[in-house]
Amino acid sequence: MSAPPDALDLSLNEVEVLAQKAARGAGLAWGVAEDTGRAAAWIAARIGPWAAELLALLHVQDSTLVLAGLLADDFSDRHVARVNSPLWALPGLFCTTTRAVAVRLDGTEMRCNPGEAPTATTVDMPTASALTVTFAGTPLPDLPLKLQPRFRRSLVGAGEWEKLQALAYRTYVPATDHSRRSGAGAGLLDDE
Amino acid sequence: MKLRPPEQVMRLARMGAMHATRLSFLRAMLRRPWQVSRETWALDAEGFGHAVYRVRIFGRTYSFVAFSTELAPELRTDRVIAEAWDASFVLYDGVPDAGEIERLRQNVPRQEAGRFCERDLILSRANKSVRLYDVVARALAGGAQPDAALVESVGYLMRTTAVYGNGKFGIADRAAIASRPEFAGPFAAEMLTVWLIRAFTVDLVEHRARAMSATAVALAPDLRRRFGVGNATGLGMAPFLVRHPLLLHNWMLARETALARVRALPAATDSTLGAFADAVARTGLDGWRTDDAVQMARIVALRADFARVRDFALPAAYPWDALYRWAEANLGLEAQELVVALLLEPHGALIDDLCEGMGADEQAAVAIDGSMRCADLADIVVRDYDWALGGPPDESRFWYASAEKLEPRLGERFAEPGAEYEQPLTFARDVPLLLAALRADPEARVAEFLMRQPEWRHVARRVQVAHRYPYAEIRDNLIGAEMRPIDLLRCKLAMFGAQKFDPRSDRWLRITLFQGAPFPEEFSRESVERAA
Question: Do B234 and A179 touch (CB under 8 A)?
């Protein structure tokens, strides 16, 4: 994975928290923002870069559909969805709990059985805009590549990091004298 | 034996009366065979410099690195927003070389303002108890032991104001160490770090005394044990229990399962009766004091209740169940929950395995069952959230993250700006609203409903999670005027193993950890003896 020299080395928890706050700051609903955070950490651990694509998605007017629309157990049977980024639909699809799920996007196929790591024909994610999702009541045979966590850290360019931080910052409430006095709790000088 | 139901257990009043038990995380940590040695002690006569303790377990090595620095009195504050401390600490994965020590020296004392990497597992800092530290150092320097009553009432030489894990500021993710058996269960690495901080504080005060006088004495072993380590905790910790429903469920389920197992015992043995008597004798409520009027009144009532517990004659048949049922019928919540802790104490062989189930992968509580009909989800709401359906709740407060320090805070909705940035600790208010929305669209699948109205997504998920994990939901309004945030803090801190809860207001408190527990050097010897 190539990264700019000014890249920050983030823990995956930092990825999740930053992506969640940025999504919320961009105006997505809480539950969607939560799923976005988890999806970012999922992608960072298994695929790699995530920040630039998230920033692009958060600028799309109705990214709710893209980011949260496809949780595996959300849908019945066969579903064809047009999405801005198939990558961001995958983590939700692969948290399946009841049924096996198969995803096809362009030439790539991926499968996931409940509670197991997904498998794929390749980990190079194509940029297809349509994906076909099929559910199965019985386990599907694994494909050659296991999509397990490969990275424990995530390198994010300083520019992307700052843009995501700026979105995240919108979720914070500016301090007032009153909130400083009362809001946090501990406030006495520690003189004991 | 049935478990106590969530509608009894998951109430703030009872959660705010919980006591540490042998399932608490620090107790679970202390049952592991840590081998600790002091490798580096580079502190000057004033006690400033750094120290390294080596920790070996199960073939792996960790290093606990402590930095002690001079702190101007006006900078000494319990607030999480402080920027300098008397001492700062890191639990390091492996053995740091000189370059790594230098990197840590540049970053660890700066805490949130520093930057960390995957070898850094836990980050913490502490301030001296001004009241006790100098008194102890001077007494030892003068060849005398410090006043035992003072030691007992303060309880610690230093008080931590934050213990960071799980990826904060670049340190290692919890997932990176979760599979190591020494860190199994919640917060084991954090508890290890705090235990080592305690050891450092006692070593430090003895070092200081020796620097003051060639005839200084060491702390007497029995008195030494009475030094714990303090902690000041504010609202930063409160939303955790709401944001980690599966973890909360597993903690409570383990505790309630343990209680049910003990109550189901048809008879006591001589050895459990002896261990129970020991636990009762060790319960020192006299040293528990607070300036908080509400809590002090509870402690006074608890002392009276506890005298009755001591006099309770255990019957031969189902003695533990009899004690519990008597406590529930006759004693206050503080005493009822203390009885729970006392009942668990003699029964390690029966219940300690439950600690293994107290961790959680929150990912298991993420998927939404979108194939459910809205009408069916509405039925679940009516069954599980009856406590929230009695009419519009008091929503006079709101939880938010402050721009100043990015920490959770509590605001007055109708007097302060920022309610539009409210954090989702609002299920008591929002679930009834979800119910109305679901009833407006009863035949739709939840997936379709959430696609059209994504603002309900986190609430719908919550209802499904709480249905599968009944101890996941706190059955009280967390945004009402009457809510005391310290009840949330007390529950979590009791799970950690905290003692001497000392509320400083309705939203922050001080506690003591490890008071009376063995030190690493005694502990290593004991665990070797136990293993032999």
Answer: no
Show me where the domains of chain A are located: 8-171
Taking residue A77's Cβ as centre, other Cβ atoms within 10 Å add up to 9
- Please state which of the ranges A111-125, B199-213, B305-319, B344-358 shows the lowest mean pLDDT: A111-125
The half-sphere exposure of B476 on its side-chain side, counting CA atoms within 13 A, is: 19
Return the residue in A11, A66, A180 with the most chain B beta carbons within 10 A, the one to mutate for interface testing: A11
Contact B80 A186 (CB under 8 A): yes
Q: How far is CA B372 from the centre of its chain?
A: 37
Mean pLDDT, rounded, for B226-237: 91
pLDDT grade for B375, boundaries at 50, 70 and 90: very high
Closest Cβ opposite residue B508 in set A153, A179, A186: A186
**Domain coordinates of chain B in residue numbers?**
6-20+241-360+482-505, 32-234+517-531
Q: Which residue has the higher pLDDT, B80 or B229?
A: B229
Tell me which residue has tokens 């969805």. A81
- Closest Cβ opposite residue B409 in set A13, A76, A184: A184
Residue B159's DSSP bridge partners are B127, B230
Chain B nearest C-alpha distance from A125 (Å): 23
| Chain A CB within 8 Å of residue B162 CB | no
Q: What single-letter DSSP state applies at residue B166?
A: T
Chain-chain contact of B403 with A14 (C-beta, under 8 angstroms):
no
Per-residue pLDDT of B250-282, as tens digits, reads 999 999 999 999 999 999 999 999 999 999 999
Chain A 137-176, residues with CB within 8 Å of chain B CB atoms? 149, 152-153, 169-176
Q: What is the distance in angstroms between the Cα of B390 and the nearest Cα belonging to chain A? A: 25
Least confident of A24-28, B107-111, B314-318: A24-28
Dist. CA A129–CA A133, nearest whole Å: 13
CB of B468 less than 8 A from some CB of A: no
Residue A85 pLDDT grade (very low, low, confident, very high; cuts 50, 70, 90): confident
Q: What's chain B's average pLDDT? A: 93
DSSP B343-390: HHTT-HHHHGGGGGGS---GGGGT---TTSBHHHHHHHHHHH-GGG-S
What is the distance in angstroms between the Cα of A25 and the nearest Cα belonging to chain B? Answer: 9
Q: What's the pLDDT at A80?
A: 57
Short-list B525, B518, B530, CA closest to B27: B518
Chain B residues with CB-CB distance to A149 below 8 A:
175
Q: Does A68 touch chain B (CB under 8 A)?
A: yes
pTM of structure: 0.93
Q: Tell me the sheet residues that pair with B37.
A: B54
